[in-house]
Description:
single chain, mainly alpha, MetI-like fold, 2 domains, 14 helices, flat
Amino acid sequence: MMLKDYLYEREFRAFSKKRKAKATSTKGVLNHRKTAFFIVSLLFIPVLHWLIFWLFVNFQSIILAFQSPLDGSFTLDNFSQFWEKLTAPVGNILGLALKNTLLYFGSSILIVLPISLVIAYFLYKKIAGYRFFRIIFFLPAIISGLALVTAFSALISPTGPIMTFIKSLGIPVDPQGLLGNKSTATGTILFYTIFTGFTTNVLLFSGAMSRVPTEVLESARLEGCSPFRELVEIIFPLIWPTFSTQLIFTMTGIFTASGPILLFDPNNKLDTITISYWIFREAYGKFGGGGVSAYNIVSCTGLCFTLAGFPIIMLARKLTDKVKAVEY
């Protein structure tokens, strides 16, 4: 009798264990389905937005690059026109636009990023007046571009306060102003884009520096580490993932880097045009009336510069990935 009770109890335990395992498995499947449904419902709108406003639009642009503007037939004439515009010995607007675009891109890589890192470091170290400087560097992200351009143009105009002060020092000033001369207009706009281009980088780098363990910096300070060595040998390696990500994002704009050309020189009288603004003018017309016949060459230009920039961006990503991130 005792053996029978023992066998019965063992079978009951085995049955209960199987039932519990089945219930756990069913619950796990339900939780997995709920998680999958939540993820799908959360990503539905952004994926739909990407399909409509990126994939569909760019697919249409790629097709336009291979179509004739007259009858829509397949042709490679757009690529021939693009090359002629890029290499034309006289009136080479597209070549000038490429040159200016590379200047803006070079300033972003070689000037804005390094200086943003230094500014973020000084704000992170809470130097005297850091709150004031933080507001100054974040103002371009708060004030509208039109207001900034208007204020900047007024400051450097021939009758503005800066030029008036320079005149008082006995230094001759061009009566046309810096924005009225072809030799200085692009450089002036370039300076404006540099001065107003620190905001996002400083914000990201400051956030990354705030995560650096204070124990590491205190230990380095006890060892007599100077601020320069602290930035180069400790801070920079620790925030490398953030810096490299921002570097890649900047690299993606190699052929789209530009400034507020529409506000400074809308008719390109001063040779300040960039590729982005050239595409805008060709697509919408010089006076906003539309340039329907130019859509094909514009699409071809965008496609060519995209194909040229893709390997450069991938190479930059491969090189940045070779630098190992410091775990902390």
